Automatic annotation (TrEMBL):
It is found in: Nucleus. Residues 127-152 are annotated as: Disordered. InterPro entries: Med7/Med21-like, Mediator_Med21. The keyword Nucleus applies. Component of the Mediator complex, a coactivator involved in the regulated transcription of nearly all RNA polymerase II-dependent genes. Mediator functions as a bridge to convey information from gene-specific regulatory proteins to the basal RNA polymerase II transcription machinery. Mediator is recruited to promoters by direct interactions with regulatory proteins and serves as a scaffold for the assembly of a functional preinitiation complex with RNA polymerase II and the general transcription factors. This is Mediator of RNA polymerase II transcription subunit 21. GO terms for biological process: regulation of transcription by RNA polymerase II. The keyword Ion transport does not apply. Component of the Mediator complex. The lineage of its organism: Eukaryota, Metazoa, Chordata, Craniata, Vertebrata. GO terms for molecular function: transcription coregulator activity. Keywords: Activator, Nucleus, Transcription, Transcription regulation.
Length: 152
């Protein structure tokens, strides 16, 4: 939208203004029946035609750019419908991702509880061993590793 306004305001308006100014400046004097005018000898023989072709090409190119920009603008109806559909799709994907995240967090919490329980058992076993009390079999490193792998 902004590109279109810029193209219309800056390019096309400037080109029309410059074209009219240059054509006015270079136009041969008009002869009136009762007034004699002298032609400026410093001007080239017929620059008006060259300028006319140059500005016609510039204006035509800018008009084509404007057409391309207009064609690239989305229609109001399709924009609202497309945005609504896109938002529904994004909301659905967000809910699915949230459900997956909740499941991963739940499994992580369960794993953390198992690890903390196993570490507590190991610490209790080590304390009993240091105090000389007979210890119950506690999970070793291999058993702890298997516990972690079984929950993953």
């Amino acid at each position: 939208h902004q590109q279109l306004l810029s193209c219309l305001n800056d390019s096309l308006a400037d080109q029309f203004c410059n074209a009219i100014g240059v054509l006015q400046q270079c136009a041969p004097p008009a002869s009136f029946s009762n007034i004699q005018t002298a032609i400026n000898k410093d001007q080239p023989a017929n620059p008006t035609e060259e300028y006319a072709q140059l500005f016609a090409a510039l204006i035509a190119r800018t008009a084509k750019d404007v057409d391309v920009l207009i064609d690239s603008l989305p229609s109001e109806e399709s924009t609202a419908a497309l945005q609504a559909a896109s938002l529904r799709q994004l909301e659905e994907e967000n809910h699915e991702a949230a459900a997956r995240l909740e499941e991963v967090v739940y499994r992580g919490d369960m794993l953390l509880e198992k690890i903390q329980s196993a570490l507590a058992d190991i610490a209790q076993s080590q304390l009993r061993t240091r105090n000389g009390a007979p210890s119950q079999p506690s999970p070793g490193k291999k058993q702890l590793h298997n516990l972690v792998l079984s929950t993953v």
